[in-house]
Amino acid sequence: MVTTPKVALAESPRPASKAARLRALLISPQLEFLMEAHNGMSAKIVEAAGFKGVWASGLSVSAALGVRDNNEASWTQVIEVLEFMSDATTIPILVDGDTGWGNFNNVRRAVRKLCQRGVAGICIEDKLFPKTNSFIGEGQPLADIDEFCGKIKAGKDSQTDPDFSLVARIEALISGWGLDEALRRAEAYYGAGADAILIHSRQSTADEILAFNAEWQNRCPVVIVPTKYYATPTDEFRESGISVAIWANHSLRASITAMQEVCRRIQRDESLVGVEDKVVGVQEIFELAGNEELAEAESRYLPSSGRETRAILIAASRGAALGPLTEDRPKCMVDIRGQPLLRRLVATIRGAGVRDVTVVRGYKKEKINLPSINTVDNDLYATTGEAASLACAIDHIRGECMVAYGDILFRHHILDLLMEAEGDVVVTVDALWRNRTSEAEDWVRDFASCTRPFTGDYLDDEPVYLRRMGEDVPEDEVDGEWMGLAKLSEVGSDLVRGELEAMREDGTLHKASLLDLFTRLAEAGHKIRVVYATGQWLDVDVAADVADAHEFL
Ligand code: SPV
Ligand code: MG
């Protein structure tokens, strides 16, 4: 028999183990409570509600698995559920071990496994395997007393945690054998080493339980399950000296009621509207599941997570020059070979490992409905420029951040060049700008004047910086055309946020373009790194560009 090292526990600075805490609940002089749970999530909810311990109900675990409370779930399947419950919680679990899932030998193995899984105690009942729930049928046969005492001894001799508890459950009242038989069994089980006894009843009043307790006189702790005599005031249990009351199946029953209601409603309405405010939001699921801890751990352990790049795509304008093509949708949603332009752009960006994509919407914003993107809206899109659109996403300009127009297409290697380039603000500039032509009447181009022209020498890695950008850069000063693609480092993101705020303050934000933004930064002395590319991109402004985009793909 394992004995509890009381001194070692008392001297230890570690918090008491789960098993020690269940034992403390059993022997505590006041009435304590265990609340039913049947999986990891329900166990978390029980803990969050303030309970000091969990009852892993056989009925509920079985029902949650979709099977009957007749040992249809194997004991190892139950232990798997318990492992999730134990991992999910810090409070102790008393498991409903039915009849011990076999004879004394099965109890030995089960107790060892439960100790390994951090389960604090087991309750075994004196019926026959395979068991039937106590509220089904009449006069269920009871186990032989000596055989059951052997199970108790075997269980206690097998525990590897000295504080693990074994609760012996007496079914004599349930099976109609009466008080004396219940007391005889209680005496025997206590003598065999049970840490507590559970006296069960299916009557609607607590009379027989209270009568038993009056006779038993607390020779060892008594546990009850008031499912059927639920109307009995809890103080009566307290006054009678009951040790622990188990609320045995109410998490499961509550969830069934809620699921039935929601399923029926959704089925009837063919809509989620009627239930949305009746169910928790997914955010609450994330909170219960502990996603915050995972995010924190990712930032500590994943090498790339600290540098995760996000992207902001400016897609607020209509693109009026596209005429009827943008009557019912913004330019970025124009179809290019069976897919919206923006969808192709997002796919290219995701291909570079950028998961977090935010699109700034404006004109016909409801048409921008791609999966897995964040959206922010510039509702003043008709009268504002791109800088104002970018400012709408100011909370997303954080860490390493790509900024791009939503109407461009480019080859993948251009993105690779950009991602590899070092610098707090990096812009991609097409050195072959002279090769581009357009049928547009008033073709507007984003020219860039840089510290050095493109040399064509790929071994030349001397950095090039932006002097200024504008549609009006004199031709002899033009070194290339900005492709609508930029990357900010964490410092660059801070710079851009600060500059947008400054523009908001001095009243220029409303009308400013991204060219104005980068030029302001360059003229203020910040180094805007230029990465030269040589064609292999396009933007969509007029109908002919759509045809080019088809070709491009
Ligand atoms: C359980 O919760 O599985 C129990 C209690 O064993 S009872 O259903 O009342 O038998
Ligand atoms: Mg049970």
CATH topology of the largest domain: Spore Coat Polysaccharide Biosynthesis Protein SpsA, Chain A
Mean pLDDT rating: 92
Strand content: 15-25%
Largest sheet: 8 strands, parallel, barrel
Bound molecules: sulfopyruvate, magnesium ion
Question: What would you say this structure looks like, in words?
Answer:
- The chain has 553 residues and is α/β, with parallel strands linked by helices.
- It folds into three domains: 18-248, Alpha-Beta Barrel (TIM Barrel), CATH 3.20.20; 252-279, no CATH class; 283-552, Spore Coat Polysaccharide Biosynthesis Protein SpsA, Chain A, CATH 3.90.550.
- It contains 19 helices and 21 strands.
- Helix 3 (40-48) links the parallel strand 1 and strand 2.
- The longest helix is centred in the middle third of the chain and has 20 residues, at 250-269.
- The relative contact order is 0.08.
- The structure holds sulfopyruvate and magnesium ion.
Salient structural properties:
553 residues, binds magnesium ion, alpha/beta, Spore Coat Polysaccharide Biosynthesis Protein SpsA, Chain A, binds sulfopyruvate, disordered N terminus, 3 domains, eight-stranded parallel β-barrel, 19 helices, TIM Barrel, five-stranded mixed β-barrel
